[in-house]
Design goal:
With 210 residues, this protein is an alpha/beta fold. Helix 1 (31-40) runs parallel beside helix 6 (182-209). The protein is built from six helices and seven strands; from the N terminus they run βαβαβαβαβαββα. Strands 3-2-1-4-5-6-7 form a seven-stranded mixed sheet, sandwiched between helices. 35% of the residues lie in helices and 20% in strands. It has a single domain, classed as 3-Layer(aba) Sandwich (Rossmann fold). It catalyses: N(1)-(5-phospho-beta-D-ribosyl)glycinamide + (6R)-10-formyltetrahydrofolate = N(2)-formyl-N(1)-(5-phospho-beta-D-ribosyl)glycinamide + (6S)-5,6,7,8-tetrahydrofolate + H(+). Belongs to the GART family.
Length: 210
């Protein structure tokens, strides 16, 4: 008896991940931005970079973003003088026009005004090179060594009006070695930053996508 012919069944297409549009703010080389670009290139990663914005025309990170095919924009703060809010209103208009749902600070070296923080309340993330609440502000690696800290690391937090005071979303730590200099400690912390930021952003985007 002849066996019935079995038709091959087409495989169901893989479910497409709904990606959350994000904008990244930089001022310099954007090393954390590079880690986010690599993460967002994965089909299963829930974020899509729709804009990379810098307040400095000479920021090396702009070339990195452009090489990745991302839209970039420069809104130089210098023409605005001391009027930070006017500068930030231009930034906000660009963020709104991009369709971004989240703003990610990646080495953005400007203290934000309460106006912009309020406009993006609970939707703006930052990464800080210390285990907050320890060592807010600048020169964290020098401070950790000087204080005799046994552990140091990085923190991803929501941005609030207080500098480095927002709710903590994730942390990663490294031991402080007796032989450490600020540079060697910074290098090890930076490795953890590149792992932690995409991980925390993924978690936040999963919440937004629901």
């Amino acid at each position: 008896m002849k066996k019935p012919h079995s038709k091959s069944r087409a495989k169901a297409p893989a479910k497409k991940t709904e990606k959350v549009p994000i904008a990244i703010l930089i001022s310099g080389r954007g090393s954390n931005m590079r880690a986010l670009i690599e993460a967002c290139a994965r089909p299963d990663y829930p974020a899509e970079i729709v804009l990379v914005l810098s307040n400095r025309p000479d920021a090396p990170g702009l070339e990195v973003a452009e090489a990745a095919g991302l839209k970039t924009l420069i809104i130089d703060h210098k023409p605005f003088g001391k009027d930070r809010e006017a500068h930030e209103r231009e930034i906000d208009a660009a963020l709104q026009a991009s369709g971004a749902m989240l703003v990610v600070l990646a080495g953005y070296m400007r203290v934000l005004t309460p106006w912009l923080v309020k406009a993006w309340e609970d939707r703006m993330l930052n990464i800080h090179p210390s285990l907050l609440p320890a060592f807010p502000g600048l020169h964290t690696h020098e401070a950790a060594i000087k204080a005799g800290a046994k552990e140091h690391g990085c923190t991803v937090h929501l941005v609030t009006s207080g500098v480095d005071e927002g709710p903590i979303l994730g942390q990663a730590s490294v031991p402080v070695l007796e032989t450490d200099t600020p540079d060697t400690l910074a290098a090890r912390v930076l490795e953890q930053e590149h792992l932690l930021y995409p991980e925390v952003l993924e978690m936040i985007c999963d919440v937004f996508a629901k």
